[in-house]
Amino acid sequence: MIPVEGHKNLFRNESGAIINCDITEYNQYIKMKRDRQKQKEEIAELKKDVYEIKNLLMELINARP
Questions:
Q1: Where in the chain are the domains?
Q2: Which of 10, 16, 34, 47 is deepest in the core (most CB within 10 A)?
Q3: Is the full-model pTM beyond 0.70?
């Protein structure tokens, strides 16, 4: 691999693609990706809870004499 001028952790492979060989940056990226997935799951769970609360409130309103 050929080093990219001005960047100590970037290299160009045989196909011309630039590769980042910085393990710290890679680990930060993976953590960020996991955190984002966790946030999406939490939001989905909150939406589900709000939907259930809404349905329960509608049942209470409709159950009135």
A1: 25-65
A2: 10
A3: no
Radius of gyration from C-alpha coordinates of the chain: 25
Given the DSSP bridges, would you call strands 18-20 and 2-3 parallel, antiparallel or unpaired? unpaired
Q: For 4-61, what is each residue's pLDDT tens digit? A: 999 999 999 999 999 999 999 999 999 999 999 999 999 999 999 999 999 999 999 9
E-assigned strands of 1-65? 2-3, 10-12, 18-20
User: How far is it, in rounded angstroms, from Cα 2 to Cα 13?
Assistant: 7
Tokens standing for 50?
A: 């709000």
Residue 22's φ and ψ, nearest 5 degrees, are: -85, 110
Strand order across the 10-12 sheet: 2-3, 10-12, 18-20
Where do we find the tokens 């409709």? Answer: 62
